[in-house]
């Protein structure tokens, strides 16, 4: 390798870092002593509580002590604390609640040093780049601080400047963590699903990505591309000419943090619509794009003019594979249908349970935890509640939280907390499920159409009520239009792929020896206002031009089965 010290590393490399400090152990001794004495004091406090029979009495005090200890140890350990706050399989519930509060805040570093970093990185003086630059940072976090400025070309910008010597500090901490992991791993009864050193390596990889501001800029542009057709989601533009690995210049966002309810209302913005944008865009990230913002804390989300929402800070992002996205939709469908055996299988596919796990005893436990999830007020049942409940299950059943899902859980819990701060009566189901219903009803892929069939059929029977519910719920989503959905449904019915559904619909309409006209009438009443005659005519003409006579004739043998049935029914009535 060309690098001769950790400060020059562009990506995390555990072998190089280990080799560097193995031959220079004295460089790590001081830091090691600081870490050991800090944790030794904390452990002694826990033991003292045991000796004095004050464990229960001092639980909250010790949890706060741990949070402050991690903050004092600096950027790497703050990030460790944030990561642990999403791991109910590793951390006690009382500690978990305190670590969730862990703020990514540190005192700012010297402003003259920040200006020097800007000039060194961008190879020109501050005066050559900016007509204005705030004398002090407007925000300071664990990895850097932000200044407000104006470019010589007139654009108002935010300038992120990384803390000095950050890479060597992080590299040294990761080296010591990995060294400790090799010794501690055999002694700790942790349900990780991996060797502890691999967990440290994954954490190190993500942390090095986060301190590369060029990577953050690329993430922002990818995120903006995904939402390019959604005017309600704003992403700041990146000024590449004035950016480097340690300095990032981006468009300044004028808005209010989502927790600033008073000013949001004063600006004439509707908190309810902001919540809707946040939840829907969060689901889009997970279920459509697979590329999601893993750190949506209140400081990274803003309500802006015309009722839109802005995301900032794209250092911590992750990507979901297609099969994972599909399995997540499956899990949501199975949760809605209360199919807990299938849901347990989804947990196996997603990595929460090992492939050889006997799921039979787990199914009743899942039902107990998730049984009343759908339709309950999020104040009573929410993602945090699920996390807490699962923290109990983790010790009874072989659940583990894959690292990728730790980020997802953190993202969901944080967004939910923000929504609750805007509206204490917020119901996640009322906002999230319309999006899922719309996605299923407008399923543009075979995989989504299969999932729709899983919702509409149970034990081989067509569930009329579920279809009514789906349409009712989807219609509360402003983006849902029943006409394209009806068109797609008819196209699917007339296709080769829809052969099974044609047969099942005929059976459903004639089920229990009666014609289900009441159900059809209820569905028509539900959608008739959205289906004016002229639009229906256009759909019909379009379909006729698209399909051959053979395609239409394919359903006639089944359709004619109604005729004798109807005649017999009429005869019996006479």
Could you walk me through the main structural features you see in this protein, from its secondary elements to its overall organization?
Helix 14 packs across helix 15, helix 20 runs parallel beside helix 23 and helix 21 packs parallel to helix 24. It contains 27 helices and 13 strands. The strands form 4 sheets. Strands 1, 2, 3, 4 and 6 form a 5-stranded antiparallel sheet that branches. It has a 4-stranded mixed sheet with strand order 5-10-9-7. With 574 residues, it is α+β, with helices and mostly antiparallel strands.
Number of β-strand runs: 13
From the helix content, strand content and strand pairing, which structural class follows? alpha+beta
Tell me, what's the shape? globular
Strand content: 5-15%
- Average pLDDT level: 76
Q: C-alpha Rg, in Å? A: 28 Å
Number of helices: 27
Instruction: Tell me the span between the first and last alpha carbons.
Output: 92 Å
Low-pLDDT windows of residues: 547-552, 554-574
Percent of residues in helices: 55-70%
Tell me the major beta sheet. 5 strands, antiparallel
Oligomer: single chain
Question: Any chance you could write out the topology, listing elements then pairs?
Answer:
Elements: H1 14-22, H2 26-51, H3 59-73, H4 75-84, H5 93-99, H6 111-122, H7 126-129, E1 130-133, E2 139-140, E3 144-151, E4 156-162, H8 166-184, H9 196-210, H10 213-226, E5 233-234, E6 247-251, E7 256-257, H11 261-266, H12 271-289, E8 291-293, E9 301-304, E10 308-311, E11 317-319, H13 322-336, H14 340-350, H15 362-370, H16 383-396, H17 403-422, H18 428-441, H19 446-456, E12 457-458, E13 461-462, H20 464-474, H21 482-494, H22 499-509, H23 517-527, H24 533-546, H25 549-553, H26 556-559, H27 562-573
Parallel strand pairs: 5-10
Antiparallel strand pairs: 1-3, 2-3, 3-4, 4-6, 7-9, 8-11, 9-10, 12-13
């Amino acid at each position: 390798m060309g690098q001769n010290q950790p400060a020059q590393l562009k990506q995390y490399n555990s072998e190089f870092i280990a080799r560097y400090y193995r031959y220079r152990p004295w460089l790590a001794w001081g830091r090691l002593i600081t870490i050991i004495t800090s944790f030794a004091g904390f452990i002694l406090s826990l033991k003292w509580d045991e000796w004095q029979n004050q464990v229960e009495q001092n639980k909250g005090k010790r949890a706060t002590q741990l949070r402050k200890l991690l903050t004092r140890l600096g950027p790497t350990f703050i990030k460790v604390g944030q990561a642990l706050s999403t791991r109910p399989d590793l951390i006690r519930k009382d500690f978990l609640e305190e670590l969730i509060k862990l703020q990514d805040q540190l005192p700012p570093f010297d402003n003259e040093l920040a200006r020097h970093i800007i000039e060194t990185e961008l190879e020109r003086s501050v005066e050559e780049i900016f007509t204005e630059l705030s004398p002090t940072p407007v925000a300071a976090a664990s990895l850097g601080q932000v200044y407000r400025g104006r470019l010589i070309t007139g654009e108002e910008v935010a300038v992120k400047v990384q803390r000095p010597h950050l890479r060597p500090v992080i590299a040294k901490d990761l080296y010591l963590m990995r060294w400790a992991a090799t010794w501690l791993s055999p002694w700790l009864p942790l349900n990780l699903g991996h060797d502890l050193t691999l967990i440290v390596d994954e954490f190190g990889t993500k942390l090095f990505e986060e301190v590369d501001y060029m990577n953050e800029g690329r993430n922002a542009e990818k995120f903006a591309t995904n939402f390019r057709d959604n005017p309600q989601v704003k992403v700041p533009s990146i000024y590449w000419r004035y950016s480097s690995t340690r300095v990032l210049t981006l468009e300044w966002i004028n808005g209010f943090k989502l927790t600033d309810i008073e000013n949001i209302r004063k600006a004439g913005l509707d908190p309810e619509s902001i919540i809707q944008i946040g939840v829907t865009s969060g689901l889009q990230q997970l279920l459509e794009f697979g590329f999601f913002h893993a750190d949506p804390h209140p400081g990274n989300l803003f309500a802006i003019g015309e009722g839109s929402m802005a995301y900032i800070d794209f250092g911590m992002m992750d990507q979901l594979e297609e099969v994972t996205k599909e399995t997540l939709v499956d899990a949501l469908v199975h949760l809605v249908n209360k199919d807990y055996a299938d849901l347990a299988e989804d947990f196996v596919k997603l990595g929460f349970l090992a492939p050889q796990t006997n799921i039979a005893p787990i199914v009743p436990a899942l039902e107990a935890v998730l049984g009343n999830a759908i339709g309950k007020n999020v104040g009573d049942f929410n993602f945090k509640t699920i996390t807490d409940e699962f923290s109990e299950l983790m010790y009874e059943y072989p659940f583990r939280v894959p690292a990728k899902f730790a980020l997802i859980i953190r993202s969901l819990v944080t967004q939910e907390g923000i929504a609750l701060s805007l509206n204490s009566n917020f119901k996640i189901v009322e906002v999230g499920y319309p999006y899922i219903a719309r996605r299923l009803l407008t399923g543009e892929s075979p995989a989504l159409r299969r999932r729709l069939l899983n919702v509409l059929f149970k034990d081989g029977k067509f569930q009329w009520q579920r279809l009514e519910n789906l349409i009712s719920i989807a219609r509360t989503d402003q983006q849902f239009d029943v006409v394209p959905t009806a068109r797609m449904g008819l196209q699917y019915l007339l296709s080769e792929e829809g052969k099974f559904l044609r047969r099942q619909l005929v059976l459903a309409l004639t089920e229990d020896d009666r014609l289900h006209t009441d159900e059809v009438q209820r569905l028509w009443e539900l959608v008739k206002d959205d289906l004016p005659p002229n639009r229906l005519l256009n759909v019909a003409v379009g379909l006729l031009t698209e399909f051959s006579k053979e395609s239409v004739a394919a359903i006639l043998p089944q359709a004619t089965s109604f005729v004798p049935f109807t005649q017999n029914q009429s005869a019996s009535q006479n």
